[in-house]
Design a protein that fits this description.
The protein is of the alpha+beta class. The chain has helices at about 10-40, 45-55, 60-70, 75-85, 105-130, 145-160, 170-185, 210-220, 250-275, 275-285, 290; strands at about 60, 90, 100-105, 140-145, 165-170, 190-195, 205-210, 220-230, 230-240, 245-250. The protein has a 7-stranded mixed β-sheet with strand order 4-10-9-8-5-6-7, with helices on both faces. Strands 1-3-2 form a 3-stranded antiparallel β-sheet. β5, α7 and β6 (about 190-195) form a beta-alpha-beta unit. α2 (about 45-55) packs across α3 (about 60-70) and α6 runs parallel beside α7.
Length: about 300
């Protein structure tokens, strides 16, 4: 009798085929993500696809790159020429029987070149803009359209902080903010962090908010509040359905309200930490009476 746990050659081939399909799908997703990021850095879609295509098959002829990248053959030479003018692609010293071959800049060097170029250009641009800028009040509220804008602005605020940071967030947001916060802490910046969910790491003075599950259901998602130096604030809501609603400002009233919000969360976590038995007995296991703001006697 055959072993019920044995795998037939046909099943093995089927499993291998599924594994290859899964890997191919993952590679396509990673490629699409890389193309999108490269485009945000100022390159065209054809340039991004050509660079990635060449990385995958270099050294390669223009025909081979076009086939690998799906860039039309009619566009591949001008795209390669643009990348060569930017120092990202170069022809090899000798051509093959199939034609001229090309190689691409290493990903690390590519990233560093973009970084250095951006730093250099913004350093030149800032004094020019300052000379022509007519000062306007700094109390406007600026919307942030997506998670990428939220992350960039929050990290920028942390990096530019000079004295203190107040932060209320969930683990998902702390994951991408952590390194910037640690660097700020190493610069001597005072940090108070209210963490929804039991913290797995401490940054500055870290407080565990005790009612993360209840608040997640009540609010319909996660929240992020960041205040730096008592003069800038970023507030974001990450909805369960996937949407985001966020903005930042230096509006004094907006900053004050957000600052008080985080501080009062710190106060309540301190109280519940040291007086938890009495708090639970008085306000309920989920602090439901405490949260009933419209009943002063509850």
């Amino acid at each position: 009798m055959a072993n019920s746990e044995s795998t037939s050659p046909q099943n093995e081939k089927s499993c291998l085929g599924l594994t290859k399909m899964s890997r191919a799908k993952q590679t396509m997703q990673q490629t699409d993500e890389a193309i999108a990021i490269i485009q945000r850095l100022g390159f065209t879609a054809y340039e991004a696809k050509t660079y990635l295509g060449l990385l995958a098959c270099q050294p390669a002829t223009a025909y081979e790159v076009a086939k690998q990248s799906t860039v039309p053959s009619s566009k591949i030479y001008e795209t390669l020429n643009r990348l060569m003018s930017k120092g990202i692609v170069q022809p090899t010293l000798s051509a093959t029987e199939h034609g001229q071959q090309y190689v691409a800049l290493h990903p690390y060097d590519f990233s560093e070149q973009i970084r250095e170029s951006a730093v250099s250009q913004t350093s030149q641009l800032l004094p020019l803009l300052e000379k022509i800028t007519h000062e306007v009040p700094s109390d406007f509220i600026w919307p942030l359209a997506d998670e990428n804008q939220i992350q960039n602005k929050a990290i920028e605020m942390v990096r530019q902080s000079r004295t203190n940071i107040l932060l209320s967030c969930w683990p998902q947001e702390l994951d991408w903010l952590e390194q910037a916060l640690l660097k700020a802490e190493s610069r001597g910046i005072k940090i108070a962090l209210v963490h929804f969910g039991k913290p797995t790491r401490n940054i500055g003075a870290t407080y565990h908010h005790p009612e993360e599950k209840t608040l997640y259901e009540e609010k319909g998602g996660r929240g992020l509040t960041l205040v730096t130096d008592s003069n800038a604030v970023l507030i974001a809501n990450f909805e369960k359905a996937g949407g985001v609603d966020a903005s930042w400002s230096k509006n004094t009233a907006f900053v004050t309200v957000a600052e008080d919000y985080v501080k009062h969360d710190v106060y309540i976590t301190k109280v519940t930490r040291f007086l938890e038995p009495a708090m639970l007995a008085r306000f309920g296991q989920q602090y439901e009476k405490l949260r009933d703001v419209f009943n002063a006697d509850s």
